[in-house]
Model the fold of this input.
Amino acid sequence: MDLTDKEYVERCRDGHQEDFRVLVDRYQKPLFAYLAGRLRDGRQVEEAAQESFVRAFLSLKKLRKPESFYSWLLGIAGRVAKEQLRSLKHRQQDCEVTESIMANAADSQEENYPLEEAIAALPETYRQVILLRYYEGLSCQEIATRLALPLGTVTKTLSRAYALLRQELAARESAEPTVNQTELP
Amino acid sequence: MNCAECRENLVACVEGLLDHEESLQCQAHLETCAACRAEYTAITRLQRQLVARGPATAEVSLVKPVMQRVHAIQTERERNSIMTKLFTRWGFGLSAAAGAAAIILIAFLVFPKAQATAAEVMTKGAQAVAKLTSIHLRGQVRTYPADNFSYINADSPFYSIELWKQFEPDLKWRVEKPQRVVVMDGKSTVMLIKSGNTGVKLPQRTTSAFDTEWLHRIANLSNTISNELDNARAKGWKLNLTEETGTDGRLKSVVTVLAKSGVPDNDYCKNTFMENADTRRVYRFDAQSKLLESVQIYLTRPSGEVQIFDLSQIDYNQPMDSSVWKLELPADVSWAQLPEQLSKLPDNEKYASMTAEQAARAFFEACARKDWDEVGKFMSPVTQGSKDYLGGLEIVSLGESFTSKTYPGRFVPYEIKLQPQEFNVRVSNANAAKRCVVTGMYDSKLRLQQDFKWSTEPEVLTNNEAYARLSPTEAVKAYFDAQSKLDWVEMRKFTSESDVEETKNQVEAAEKQGMDVYKLMPVMEAGEATWSAEQSAWFVKCRMSQTKKWNLAIRKDNPAGRWQVDGGF
Done:
């Protein structure tokens, strides 16, 4: 049973909290990649990713647009990452290592996380093939089998997804990231 | 290959999905066309960025740790909901003690004094069990043994109902009545309807499921108080408090709630489920310990009150045996498909466009033909029991469907003639009167359906000799004969008091529904008797021909939009 994000969010809200597992499974890798672009340190990234999911779970009832679950999740993750960096800065203010981590993280912001934000902005059909292809490592044929679609439909969807991603990335090059201005949990 | 064809095939080309010749054509075009080459380069650049994500996240496995944290939060929420749910709604998220004080204060501000003091007793009751580790409720309810957990029937005898609920170390629960049981073992929630040999599985943890919410609410006093106070405010339910001395000589605070379901009196489903019933609920608290000790629920009808639920045993924080969380499933259990998982058929439209009456007819006609694949399009699962019961039926009539305010589907009145059913009656004369009496009912395959409990030995009759001379088959014939004539005194000579009472209640209930009972009474035939050394009893082979007149509950609120038979046999 492959439901949409909206349907899973609604099921979780209706008491099927166990279905949250599907949403974690669906977005753990892109979320991890997004946080890795901000935090670098593997342990920190994992902690932040877990924390983001748990906060999302706790705030699920407040999500006004369940179809935008992933984009909303990235917003939460962005705040979690900021908090982690801030607390790290406070804890080790005098430590040079921290400064270098902070510097790395600051450098990396530009180059890495817009891609995940752009993926989050894709309509779900296109996002799904991108996630399956690059984060789950499935071939086009495997995606076709998984989604019970003709191979041609998968390549066409992928082609359209690339075009949309490029548009989104181009738009972001000249603008500030918007994901944090979406719904607050 | 031109530009349009090249663009269309570009992703397939990048992915290496084109055959050799197409690939060469694509490459050749790219070499000559700068615009398409730029497109190709852009895609491969983006792809490189994306490909880099794969290895970096290959080992990521957050599901388990996240779900562990989610479960821990859920359990804590459920355990603390005794207080938290109550306080977030009524006490504005204060601490337990402050929250309780706030509720009492609010109750005094919002409600008349009598109601406020009743609310205060309930709040203190919730506070007394604020950190519960487990609870066990044992009571009895007027219902049918295999029916919905929330189903009530004022004309039915009482049957036992129990709830076991563990809050620590993790949330688990079990609700059971004689023919229906559901277990949430911390991972999934499984219900078994024993008489239908049917299982239903929810692949997730739940805090309540399968219409057990009303019983869970009693186990979670804060929910009860929230519910009663909300309704007192919104619907004008009345709360009141009295005091009395209990049988243990201690002072008891008795909170009575007059609950109105808001369902119109002429609604078909009125008073058939806990949620649809107008009730008087009596909560008895020990005045000193503040603990809830018993609950009685009475159905309040214009014709008078009938007690439908009696909860007399509540065990707090008792250790629970791990076997409680195990559900023994028969090897041949039939699994019901959940309505939300119902998928569309290739010819789904044919079914989705039916009216309720057309669907009921198609369903009964498929049963008549014993076309079980077709029947399966209308119900899940099609058990052997359903096949035995409905197979070969004859439709007498179908009426115009109607609705209930509380049911999302429709009801289709029907009258059907069922194919004769074979069954066995267990008979024994190992009693003081030496008469053959009925001790149990078995299906055609000698599976026990009902064990008749004799609370007292069969009475020695004044003309006992004549009865004692009857063979097992003759005794069963005489039992059937008395039953068909509704001669309860004669019937009692052959069967237990509870069997007579149950038959009597069913007949009275049918009469109240305006049914012609004599016409609908099954025609019974008793055949040969066989001695069972193992059971020390005779088994008399019998046949029953029956006409059934009732209302088929049918609904289509599922993803396939297809009518599904929900009940009403």
Q: What stands out?
A: Confidence is low (pLDDT under 50) at residues 81-94 of chain B. The two ends of chain B are 67 Å apart (CA to CA). Residues 34-51 of chain B form the longest helix (18 residues). Chain B has five domains: 3-56, 73-131+220-315, 137-216+320-325, 345-418+550-567, 421-545.
